[in-house]
Design a protein that fits this description.
This protein is mostly helical. It has 9 helices and 2 strands, in the order H-H-H-H-H-H-H-E-E-H-H. It is globular. The chain starts with a helix and ends in a 12-residue tail after the last helix.
Length: about 180
């Protein structure tokens, strides 16, 4: 798995989802969060800085990735701190920003998790999830909240979200798993 991950890091330093594809900011931020030690951290950091410089808050996953790599500069750190509390964020954006903030200010990240993500959690027979407009968005929202729960030590919530995703996540074909 490490070799596949390393092979997906392109010349730009970011992570490409397919061979010969351009690097994807969201995949790169997520990779920095969960697998930064298996990648060229300086190249990934360079790529994510470039994305933040070009896109700013349009790519909150890049800020999350830089925080996970401990590579935020002062202006990016301030941008992350300010953006994390913005009530105009989608749940997915909030999850990225809260995950990134957990590296800088755990107490504030916990407060935002409790105020923004916990109220959005829904429980069913499969576990906890955050509904979206479609199954893909539901899985994405739940996975983002799961990352926050793990980073903040919310073991009960994390376990329930893992249960949900195991039953209703994405299958090996990249489509929502059943039953629906």
């Amino acid at each position: 798995a490490q070799a596949v991950l390393e092979d997906s890091q392109g010349y730009s330093g970011g992570i490409a989802l397919y061979p010969y594809a351009a690097s994807d900011p969201e995949a790169s931020g997520r990779a920095a969060l969960v697998a930064g030690d298996f990648l060229d951290r300086s190249e990934l950091s360079y790529y994510l800085h470039h994305i933040v410089d070009q896109e700013g808050l349009a790519e909150p996953a890049a800020l999350m990735g830089l925080a996970a790599l401990d590579s935020l500069n002062e202006s990016e750190e301030e941008l992350l701190r300010t953006a994390a509390g913005d009530s105009g964020n989608t749940l997915r954006e909030s999850a990225y920003l809260i995950a990134g903030l957990s590296y800088l200010d755990r107490e504030r990240a916990q407060s935002l998790y409790d105020d923004v993500l916990v109220p959005a959690l829904v429980s069913d027979r499969y576990g906890l999830y955050i509904p979206g407009e479609n199954d893909y968005e539901t899985v994405d929202n739940t996975a983002g909240a799961l990352a926050c729960a793990v980073l903040l030590g919310e073991e009960a919530d994390a376990g329930e979200m893992v249960s949900y995703l195991a039953e209703r996540g994405i299958n090996s074909y990249g489509t929502p798993a059943g039953p629906y």
